[in-house]
């Protein structure tokens, strides 16, 4: 089960232009989003550690998003 609510995933899909979204599609989308977010988070932590910081900053997340 994902930490990202299906309702949020549904809303993102609708904002992207979907007229209707099935429950299974919203659930799967939320699981995929969480996996992608975890990868970005891990990379951001690595960037912060490399910079000698314990605090993850916005610039770490921006860098992680681009790799």
Structural features, described:
By secondary structure, the chain is mainly α. Helices cover 69% and strands 0% of the residues. It contains three helices and no strands. It has helices at residues 6-15, 23-50, 58-65. Helix 1 packs across helix 2 (23-50) and helix 2 (23-50) crosses helix 3 (58-65). 9% of the residues are buried. The mean pLDDT is 97.
> Strand content of the residues, in percent?
under 5%
The profile of the biggest β sheet is: none
Straight-line distance between termini: 26 Å
Q: How many H/I helical runs?
A: 3
Number of domains: 1
Named at the architecture level, the CATH assignment is Orthogonal Bundle
The count of DSSP E runs of length 2 or more, i.e. the number of strands, is 0
The SSE string, one letter per element, is HHH
């Amino acid at each position: 089960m994902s930490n990202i609510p299906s309702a949020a995933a549904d809303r993102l899909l609708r904002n992207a232009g979907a007229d209707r979204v099935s429950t299974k599609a919203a659930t799967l989308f939320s699981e995929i989003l969480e996996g992608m977010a975890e990868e970005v988070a891990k990379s951001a932590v690595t960037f912060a550690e490399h910079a000698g910081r314990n605090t993850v900053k916005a610039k770490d997340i921006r860098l992680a998003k681009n790799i």
